[in-house]
Structure formats: structure tokens, C-alpha cells
Amino acid sequence: GVDLHYFKAAEDVVDVNTKKNYGDDIGWEADLELKYKYSKNLCLTLGLDHFDPDDAYVGAGDDDPEDHLWFQADLKF
Prior knowledge:
Blueprint: E1 2-8, E2 25-39, E3 42-53, H1 55-59, E4 66-75
Antiparallel strand pairs: 1-2, 2-3, 3-4
């Protein structure tokens, strides 16, 4: 599956020293997931996501895009 997410802060991010307002736009994330249902009680997921920061995230001190590779196991009992 493919998912797209857009993140916003509840309030504008404001630098306490300079009083600069960075707005409330945190950034975009795109996820790609591969799921495998091993049994009725176990589902395995491999995912890759890319996060592209926007102004509010940059104002908090980080402007580098991030990529994550992850594995998840969902077990029902």
C-alpha cells in the first residue's frame, strides 16, 4: 500500500529568542508498505517512508529530509 500524510502543528511554531513565526506546517510523509498475512493471527509488514520537512519543522531546528525502513509484526491472541 501507499499512504500520504500531511502534518500540521496545533499552533504556529515561534522562535522564543527572535520571535520569528514559522507557521504550523510540519511537513509531508510518503509511506510504502508490503504486508504478508502469515496466519489468521500474524501479519508481517515491511515499510519504507520518506519525510520532507516544511517551515515549522525547519524552525524547530532540523531541515534534513528523512528516510526510514521498518518492520512490524502484528500478533492477535
